[in-house]
Amino acid sequence: MTHLLNIDPPDHTRLRRLVSAAFTPRRVAAFAPRVEELTHRLIDGFADRGSADLIHEFAFPLPIYAICDLLGVPEEDHDDFRDWAGMMLHTAGRRGGVGRAVKRMRGYLSELIERKRADPADDLITALIRASDHGEHLTGEEAAAMAFILLFAGFETTVNLIGNGTLALLRHPDRMEYLRGVVRAGDEPAVDRAVEELLRWDGPVEIATWRFAREPLTIGGRRIAPGDPVLVVLAAADRDPARFPDPDRLDLTRSDQQHLGYGHGIHYCLGAPLARLEGRIALSALLTRLPHLRLAVDPAELRWRGGLIMRGLRALPVDFRRETDLPAGNAPSGL
Ligand code: HEM
């Protein structure tokens, strides 16, 4: 399937311009109250229980519901997307599962595009259909591929931002307290700075998608022939001591925010404004609604999903009962 991440200019330039006309920072900013609502509804689902798996019950559904809503997928169909996204996440690497989920999502989105053509609405799919550049429009096929890549690129990445970010805070209780303090004080710039540092410190995308050399290159003393693949390890660049002082330290007040968590160059993340919004709202809500948040298992028991490009947890079991409410002998696990 052809989409933004696997094409070069001039096709990439044209498609990116068209989608940027529809997926504007203004549209994303106007979406904040809806992300707040979705976030709190998900937390309501487990807040009274005292414990939860934050990946399964929070980090996983939030981005799926958010992007479905932004695109204009009717609410009664959101759970289909949740199921397909689940198949993509849990059957990655196994034959058939991902392919079936991708096919169903694409089929659904193509039909939805036809319905929106007949019955336009104030949503991103309608904006994609209408987007034009010098009189050019996206074809139905291109609009479906675009909606799909927004879902695909914006889903697991955001799951991992919330998962890895929360884990980083759980492992650094003093920094979690600092962030809770700035959230409560309504200091949005400080919260945004903290989210950027969480992305640098343990970002969702470990390695950028494949690049191929156009001409002979020498990188780090290795010769690379034209056509050879090159994998850029974004996570290593973001912990480079030549670039960031004390790079292994999680410093939520770090002023240098020029990390590579959202990539670099022409394929720089198109969804960064949405990801930042979701990250800020999700982490702020977790910290304020669950003041006793802590890991429910030993960190050594946490399991990471396999895969070359992404870095994310399979599950994040947490406990958020008051310590006085814990049964005797059931002290929270140490970090
Ligand atoms: C924290 C969450 C996110 C992270 C860390 C992230 C990271 C990235 C990275 C590293 C790239 C570049 C990949 C490469 O160069 O090979 C990228 C591209 C992209 N991202 Fe994101 N992303 C996030 C969320 C989102 C969201 C929410 C959306 C949309 C809803 C999105 C849409 C895209 C698209 C469409 C591209 C391809 C752009 C192009 O090729 O021109 N991303 N993202």
What does this structure look like?
It is a single chain. Strand 2 and strand 3 form a beta hairpin. This protein has helices at 11-22, 25-30, 32-44, 54-59, 61-71, 78-90, 97-118, 124-130, 140-171, 173-184, 188-201, 234-237, 272-289; strands at residues 51-53, 132-133, 136-137, 211-212, 217-219, 222-224, 229-230, 294-295, 317-319. With 335 residues, it is mainly α. The chain has a single domain (4-204, 271-325), classed as Cytochrome p450 (Orthogonal Bundle), CATH 1.10.630.10. It starts with 10 loop residues before the first helix and ends in a 16-residue tail after the last strand. The structure holds protoporphyrin IX containing FE. Protoporphyrin IX containing FE (HEM) binds at residues 4-5, 16, 67, 149-150, 153-154, 157-158, 161, 203-205, 208-209, 261-263, 267, 269-271, 274-275.
CATH hierarchy class name: Mainly Alpha
Q: So, the CATH homologous superfamily? A: Cytochrome P450
Order of SSEs, N→C? HHHEHHHHHEEHHHEEEEHHEE
CATH topology name: Cytochrome p450
State the helix count: 13
Bound molecules: protoporphyrin IX containing FE
List low-pLDDT spans. none
Proportion of residues in helical segments: 40-55%
Number of domains: 1
Assign the structural class, choosing from mainly alpha, mainly beta, alpha/beta, alpha+beta, or little secondary structure: mainly alpha
Q: What strand order characterises the main sheet? A: 1-9-8
What would CATH call the architecture? Orthogonal Bundle
Gross geometry: globular
Report strand %: 5-15%
> Biggest sheet, open or closed, and with what strands and sense?
3 strands, antiparallel
Q: What gap, in angstroms, lies between the N and C termini? A: 44 Å
Mean pLDDT: 91
Backbone CA Rg: 21 Å
User: How many beta strands in the DSSP annotation?
Assistant: 9
